[in-house]
Amino acid sequence: MKLFIPGPTYVSQEVREAQAAEMIGHRSQDFVQLFNGIQSKLRSVFQTENRVYVAAASGTGLWEGAMRNVVGERMLICVCGAFGKRWVDVAASNGVAHDVLEVEWGEANQAAQVEKALNTQSYDVLAVVHNETSTGVENPVADILAKAKAVQPDLITMVDAVSSAAGADIRTDEWGIDILVASSQKCFALPPGLAFAVVSDRALDRASKVPNRGWYFDFLLMEKYLLRDMTPATPAVSLLYALDHELDLILSEGIPERFARHARMAEMTQAWAVDRMALFAQEGYRSKTVTTVTNTRQIDVSALNSYLKTQGMQLVNGYGPLKDRTFRIGHMGEIQPEDVETLLAHIDTFLAR
Ligand SMILES: *Cc1c(COP(=O)(O)O)cnc(C)c1O
Question: Distance (Å, rounded) from C-alpha 73 to C-alpha 91?
């Protein structure tokens, strides 16, 4: 079954089998070696010199943890869809003071609006979603962060790259991302259960001044253990085997090649969608990893999915309030352009029935 849903994505058989390796103790030398190797490979994928925390959680857990680590006073949250909205809920439920900069869903957050907000109020953290999986929008993160840091140089920047890291070209260090969060079950093409946070020295320094960071995701504690190639609590060892194996596949494909493959799949899917129906995301800001199609033909998505299932494929309807207005095609991870071609041909067959 090929999953064209924006997480969890298709996991190759060899990666599924890698999880079956014999268990090791997480304080053993074998573990240290495994975790150390994973670190350097992850730094290549994230295009960073910074540390990468790996937690047994989904991305949301580490994102919530990140907020608790770095917000001392007040944060600004950019919203352009359902995941940005989730980060507002997470801030509210943690008692984190925040303001929201929301644009119409389907549009991208813009640097000029962020700049204006930062000129009127002081913040210690700016959060933005790189790839808004509900609307299929890719935000201009490089531009937003550059302009934001020009106004408030001490800002800590948090970027949700859950559905784009390892699929789209994200220059973590070059763009000045202090905390980048990702999950295993999207472009990494792994089973769910691992979360990643790339964390800068500046973010770590900020954390040292923030009280009540919690325990499980306390960056200072995670750092202390990472220096010994370990985690504070029991790691998901089997998933780390899978990660290690997948990272080898990613590196052997080549990082620029992987990004190019995702861009090609996005082009194919989006050209198809424009021809048959319409795209929900604003032109110029369309995701490389997921396409949100406006269902202008009112096709019955669950009937479409039942048909696709007989062909070994699945896509998914819209997210949250967009449930009935859109459907989504994920083209990420180990999905190949040939798979996309096959999927689109099957949808055409369904449409012609
Ligand atoms: C999937 C997703 C999340 C949630 O990640 P989990 O790993 O399910 O916690 C957050 N943000 C975006 C943009 C996503 O696509």
Answer: 12
Residue 167 Cβ < 6 Å to ligand 1 = no
Q: Is the CB of 133 under 6 A from ligand 1?
A: yes
Are the CB atoms for 190 and 16 separated by under 8 Å? no
* Per-residue model confidence (pLDDT) at position 11: 98
Ligand 1 contact via 136 beta carbon (within 6 Å): no
Beta strands in 44-202 (DSSP E): 51-56, 75-79, 98-102, 125-129, 131-132, 137-138, 156-160, 179-183, 194-199
Q: Which of 196, 177, 205, 161 is nearest to 72 (CA)?
A: 205
Task: Calculate how far, in angstroms, residue 183's C-alpha sits from the geometric centre of ligand 1.
Answer: 7
pLDDT tens figures, 286-345? 999 999 999 999 999 999 999 999 999 999 999 999 999 999 999 999 999 999 999 999
pLDDT confidence band for 41 (50 / 70 / 90) = very high
C-alpha dist (Å) from residue 243 to 68, 167, 194, 290, 340: 27, 15, 9, 22, 24
Calculate how far, in angstroms, residue 56's C-alpha sits from the geometric centre of ligand 1.
Answer: 15
Do the beta carbons of residue 161 and residue 181 sit within 8 Å? yes
What Å distances lie between residue 107 and 51, 94, 240, 257, CA to CA? 32, 28, 36, 28
123 touches ligand 1 (CB under 6 Å): no
> How many other β-carbons are positioned within 10 Å of the β-carbon of residue 206?
21
- What is the distance in A from the centroid of ligand 1 to the CA of 83? 7
Tally the residues of the chain. 353
| 89/16 Cα distance (integer angstroms) | 34
Question: Token pair of 221, please?
Answer: 């504690």
Q: How far is the CA of 162 from the centre of ligand 1 (A)?
A: 5
Query: What is the dihedral sign for C-alpha 217, 219, 220, 224?
Result: positive
Residue 9 in contact with residue 340, Cβ under 8 Å? no
Distance 297 CA to ligand 1 centre (A): 28
Q: What is the pLDDT of residues 189-204, one digit of tens each?
A: 999 999 999 999 999 9
Asked whether 160 lines ligand 1 (CB < 6 A), one says yes
